């Protein structure tokens, strides 16, 4: 997963971000939620979706409808519009970093996913993430 996401992030999105001293870590954490949404949107339509995050800033941004840098603020708003259109109720919960299975692939630790019988699915970013500064999606 990391071998796909890191180069794609830099190629598609990273160059459009404002310069920050923290390497946009909160934005990268938010991108994980957006990647899950883009990849599993059809499966989540009409459901309650619990997204587990290990970043307090992302947790509160998703719960409040925005926050953080302007890039994150715009994408959280776009996500809310998309969730409303798909009739998805989003619940965001905190998980400690060490307990976050989503971080395993980024560290090339796949044993837990293998034990669960997980299968690779090609990650998909929502189309409105691709052009960060284009404005909200047309609903």
Note down, in words, how this protein is organized.
The protein is mainly alpha-helical and 139 residues long. It has one domain. The chain has helices at 2-13, 25-44, 56-64, 70-85, 111-116, 127-130, and strands at residues 48-53, 89-94. Strands 1-2 form a two-stranded parallel sheet.
What features would you highlight for this structure?
single chain; 139 residues; 6 helices; mainly alpha; 48% helix; 2 strands; two-stranded parallel sheet; 9% strand
Oligomerization state of this entry? single chain
Strand order of the largest sheet: 1-2
Q: Profile the largest sheet.
A: 2 strands, parallel
State the helix count: 6
Tally the beta strands: 2
Distance N to C terminus: 30 Å
Question: What Rg do the Cα atoms give?
Answer: 15 Å
Question: How many structural domains in the coordinates?
Answer: 1
In short:
It contains six helices and two strands, in the order H-H-E-H-H-E-H-H. By secondary structure, the chain is mostly helical.
Topology:
Elements: H1 2-13, H2 25-44, E1 48-53, H3 56-64, H4 70-85, E2 89-94, H5 111-116, H6 127-130
Parallel strand pairs: 1-2
């Amino acid at each position: 997963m990391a071998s796909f996401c890191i180069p794609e992030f830099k190629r598609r999105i990273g160059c459009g971000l404002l310069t920050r001293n923290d390497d946009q870590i909160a934005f990268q954490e938010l991108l994980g939620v957006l990647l899950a949404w883009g990849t599993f949107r059809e499966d989540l339509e009409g459901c309650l979706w619990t997204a587990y995050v290990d970043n307090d800033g992302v947790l509160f941004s998703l719960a409040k409808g925005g926050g953080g840098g302007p890039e994150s603020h715009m994408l959280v708003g776009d996500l809310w519009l998309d969730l409303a259109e798909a009739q998805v109720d989003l619940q965001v919960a905190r998980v400690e970093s060490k307990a976050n299975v989503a971080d395993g692939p980024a560290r090339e630790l796949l044993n837990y996913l293998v034990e669960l019988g997980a299968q690779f699915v090609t990650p998909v970013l929502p189309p409105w993430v691709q052009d960060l500064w284009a404005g909200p999606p047309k609903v």
